[in-house]
Sequence to fold (150 residues):
Amino acid sequence: MAEALTRSAARNIFFGGSLFFFIVFVALTAHTHWYMLNVSTDSDALTEQVRMGKHVWEQNSCINCHSILGEGAYFAPELGNVWTRYGGRDNPDGARTGLKAWIRAQPLNIPGRRSMPSFDLSEEELDALVSFLEWTDSIDTQGWPPTPAG
Fold:
């Protein structure tokens, strides 16, 4: 018959398991940071216009309604892949024009539909915001969002 677990054996299992899982946690955290810095984000494409677009995104609190790469509110559509949805990979000029026109046309005032407020953005701000959305779409998100519609 097996003997009962002794107090010192239980303590050793607890501390050994705690140490093991702490090491696994640190290793996974280090891997995530390495991946994000070296593989996921194309920092060469992070131009001054993209930075300005992020500031336009933040100043107008777009994240209060939209999510981008899963981060933000879910009141309005996910914008992490909006460049692809507007055909930006096949026709970049058409996508740029279409996105700018969509933002300018708001609100659409369609009954029963949520409306985006009107933002009085300059042409330079619109170009920067679209560049930011294009850059965001180019990030390797490992399949996020799960559907093309966002």
